[in-house]
Design a protein that fits this description.
The chain is mainly β. It has 2 helices and 20 strands. The protein has 2 domains: about 100 residues, Jelly Rolls (Sandwich); about 100 residues, Jelly Rolls (Sandwich). The longest helix is centred in the middle third of the chain and has 6 residues. This is Cupin 2 conserved barrel domain-containing protein.
Length: about 280
């Protein structure tokens, strides 16, 4: 089976996939995830009435109040909140840019994704989401401030839930050294990159098969903020920010990555979410 095409969603050049009073939302999906990026005005509510599993809310700009059940939490800019299953509301306290990360069980959003047709076959090349163990203290609102963690050895700030994993990269104030890129691929899961600031070039190389007529040319796609790029499984890829602008990127995976989770200290909220038993 040939890897499917990549999806590039540049929100600066395309209309929103969902528009309501006070909110414009761009939706992009992958095999196991749905990314909804919303530009909202103060007072706007982003509601989920019967969300069947956890989702994540990253405040790229502005602030909001997040409610779930009897709980409520203030979400300032640059915070990451994991929202439990059930009914929930994100109410903007100011004009804001809200990045929400769901599994495809948010079927209403998955169906509205700009690239929904790319996944009409169900993406059998990707391992399905099998929920990881429930947190010992149960499902509840959990909030983190990724950029407050001091980790001078890496620019990665990784968090997981039972179904998703987000890597909030630290900002780059200058272009990435082109002699120190990191081309790699993933056998059975995708990588989704959300550009929050600046401009990036995503470099993709599809594997060759014995049938030369199926070979794809390499892709080197420049894309700015805000945007979402979904990189298929098995495709060699790397990215670098370019130009003088400050740059900022989120990477999203689903299900959570076991390779990252096995490295001590790499997942910053590992104490909240146990890994599955092996065997």
């Amino acid at each position: 089976m040939l890897p499917r095409p990549a999806s590039y969603a540049d929100h600066s050049t395309t209309p929103p996939d969902l528009e309501a009073p006070g909110a414009k939302t761009w939706i992009t999906r992958g095999a196991n995830l749905v990314i909804a990026v919303s530009d909202v005005t103060a007072g706007t509510v982003l509601a989920r009435d019967e969300q069947p599993d956890e989702y994540m809310v990253f405040m790229a700009a502005g602030a909001a109040t997040i409610q779930a059940g009897d709980e409520s939490i203030v979400a300032a800019a640059e915070t990451l909140t994991i929202v439990p299953p059930g009914a929930s509301r994100v109410t903007a306290a100011s004009d804001a840019r809200v990045v929400r990360v769901f599994s495809p069980r948010a079927g209403d959003l998955a169906a509205r994704a700009c690239n929904a047709g790319v996944y009409a076959d169900g993406a059998p090349e990707c391992a399905p989401i099998v929920p990881w163990p429930t947190p010992p203290d149960g499902f509840r609102l959990r909030q983190y401030v990724p950029l407050a963690y001091e980790k001078p050895e890496t620019n990665m700030r990784i968090f997981r839930s039972t179904n998703l994993m987000v890597n909030v990269m630290t900002r780059r104030d200058g272009p990435r050294d082109p002699t120190k890129l990191s081309p790699h691929s993933h056998d059975d899961f995708e990588q989704c990159s959300v550009v929050l600031e600046g401009d990036y070039v995503h470099h993709l190389r599809w594997p060759w098969t014995p049938d030369q007529t199926t070979w794809r040319d390499d892709e080197h796609v420049t894309i700015g903020a805000p945007s979402v790029t979904v990189i298929p499984a098995k495709v060699v890829h790397t990215s670098n920010n370019v130009g003088p602008k400050r740059s900022w990127l989120l990477d999203v995976f689903a299900p959570p990555r076991m390779d990252f989770s096995k490295k001590p200290g790499m997942v910053l909220n590992a104490a909240d979410y146990p890994v599955p038993a092996e065997g």
